[in-house]
Amino acid sequence: MRSAFAILALVVLVGEPRPLFAQSADELAKQTQNPVASLISVPFQGNWDFGIGDREATGTLLNIQPVAPFGLTTNWNVILRVIMPVQSQPAESGARFTGMGDTTMTVFFSPAKTGKLIWGAGPAMLIPTATNQNLGTEKFGLGPSVVALVQPGKWTVGTLWNQIWSVDGANDRDDVNQMYLQPFANYNLGQGLAVGASMEASTNFEADEEQWTSYLLFSISKVTLLGKRPVSFSAGGGPAVASPAGRPDWRLRFVATFLFPR
Question: What is the enclosing helix (H) or strand (E) of 33?
Answer without folding.
Answer: none
